[in-house]
Amino acid sequence: MELDVLVVAPHPDDAELGMGGTILRMIEEGLRVGILDLTDGEPTPYGNPTIRSQETADATKLLGLGWRENLGLANRRLEADLVNRAALAGVIRQTRPRWIFAPYWEDAHPDHVAAAALTEAARFWAKLTKSDLPGQPHWPERIFYYYCFHLHQAVQPAFVVDISPYWERKAALLACYRSQFLVGPAAEPPTLIERVRDYASVWGWSIGARYGEPFACREPIGLASFQGLR
Known about the structure:
There is one protein chain. The chain is an alpha/beta fold and about 230 residues long. The chain has one domain: LmbE-like (Rossmann fold). About 40% of the residues lie in helices and about 15% in strands. It has a 7-stranded mixed beta sheet, sandwiched between helices. β2, α2 and β3 (about 65-70) form a beta-alpha-beta unit. α1 (about 15-30) packs across α5 and α3 crosses α4. It is globular.
């Protein structure tokens, strides 16, 4: 399936956590969006592969995605090595997205840092001609980076997406991952979902909206119209 947007997530729940509202908005605006989870996210304190698979299926259904796959790489040991680069480049060549979204390149979680580096390298490899990669050469126009929450830092994003109409649905997406967000310390007040809401509120305030999701980009971003600019 060819996509407009490919979201690369180190673990199931990262895409929803970092940009769930934006994904909902993109789909509503007619974009073909897919998520590629790099690992199954296990082991975790309250999850297991069966639980995480069902949680991911529930969230995928709520999102209304037409495409979601798992690359089957090693959780906690994710590396931007040549084997993994080839695997991700092959997916990029087959799905042919215009834009890729990946985790922000600075994070306390090594898997998130590796996922950003892996995505950047795979984007380059995906355009190579004389190679044994599947599909035809393809060069996504941009990589954008969404923020997760393992490293608490003040950032200056390249842009913020208004997700005000989508916050309740984003909260429902996060609630699908019960083993991650509804048990243990994540369920103690203020809950993790409440903290995500407060974070989204700050970014919404920054653009004059109720809720927002911030994104970074290493490259200049062009504007074809001023209609949506705030």
